[in-house]
Every structure is written in C-alpha cells, then in structure tokens.
Amino acid sequence: MTSHLTSLASTAYAKAANQPDLKGPSFADAELAVNNSNFIKTYDVLVGDKGRAHLMPKRGIAVICCMDARLDPNAMLGLEVGDAHIIRNGGGRAADALRSLIGSQEALQTREIIVIHHEDCGFSHASTTVVQKALKARTPLSAHPFVDAVSLQEFSDPRESVQEDVAFLREHPLVHPDSKISGWVYRVSNGELLRAC
Ligand SMILES: [Zn+2]
C-alpha cells in the first residue's frame, strides 16, 4: 500500500485539490436514483425525439476521445444526442477504440472519424512502469503475468499522439477505405480544438 501511494504521489495526480470523498456512501447508493428521477422529468425537453430516434448516428460520425472527466465531446463539437458515436478511453487511443469503431462503421454506417487528444491528459502524466509496480504491490503473484501485459499507451505530446493514431487508422486494413479521418488537440484551458492532421 505504501509503495502504491508513493508511486501516485510521484505523479501529477497528487496535485489535485478536488479529491473525491471515498469514505462516504457511494454515488450509486446516495444520489443516483434521485438524479435519474429528475432526469426523467426533463427527458422530453433535454433529449426527447433525439433519444427515441433510430440508433444509427444521424451525422454518420464516430468520435474517438479521451475519457477525461473535463471533456464534453458533443458540446465542444456542436453535436447533439443522436448525431455521433462517442468512443472514449484513456488517452483517446485509436487502437483501444478499434472494436467499437469497427461496429460503428460496419453495423451503423459511420464514415467520418474524428480523433481528439488533449492537453494536460492523465495519460501524458502516467507511466506504465509506475502503474505496473503499484499493481504488483497489491496483487498476488498469480496476477503478475496480467500486470506485465498492461500498457497505458501513454504519450508526452498530444499533437504527436493524435497524428500517430490518425496514421494508424488510415493504414489499418479493417477501417473503411471511404473514411474521412481527422485528428485534433483539445485545450482544456479554453475549449479550443486545434487541428493536428
Ligand atoms: Zn486524457
């Protein structure tokens, strides 16, 4: 446990001032049901027919984006519920998104791919080596082969990593040849999207 905390303290995550309270009741137990009942009351206004439409994305777009809690992909792109598939993972890495992307293209006819990485990404502060060390400290030896297989696919420059991922998609034999693919870097400081490729 100590080595786990030490390894986390060595990363940028330790600087966060908005640490969650992990000792209280879970969100699922304390708030979720009330929040959802409020959502149901506003569903017709906030979602309505866009949520009841056919499941095929209206704009034919698949967005690959980081899971970062500060990013709101539909809002930054001016898209609405029903317009696009939003495929999210740590870093917004294309290789990790491939299973969903293939389903999006083959089953639901999306043909434009927008890849978004961002400044101050957790996966640019992260280290596979540090995480593997923390995992090994809290798991039995039998789990260590799984730990050795872990890769965070971390990166240092989001412009370079998004260019890498767009090249990966353009060259991938399973990505539809008619795909229009672009790569963007999102600035968390002001919401700007800068085109990288
Ligand atoms: Zn990120």
From TrEMBL:
Q: What does this protein do?
A: Reversible hydration of carbon dioxide.
Molecular function (GO) terms for this protein are: carbonate dehydratase activity; zinc ion binding
Give the family this protein belongs to, as stated in its UniProt record. Answer: Belongs to the beta-class carbonic anhydrase family.
Cofactor(s) required, per the database record? Zn(2+)
Give the cofactor note text.
Binds 1 zinc ion per subunit.
Q: Which residues bind Zn(2+)?
A: 66, 68, 118, 121
The reaction(s) catalysed by this protein are:
hydrogencarbonate + H(+) = CO2 + H2O
- UniProt xrefs under InterPro entries: Carbonic_anhydrase, Carbonic_anhydrase_sf
Q: Which organism is it from?
A: Rhodotorula paludigena
Q: What is its EC number?
A: 4.2.1.1
Annotated protein name in UniProt: Carbonic anhydrase
- UniProt keyword list: Lyase, Metal-binding, Zinc
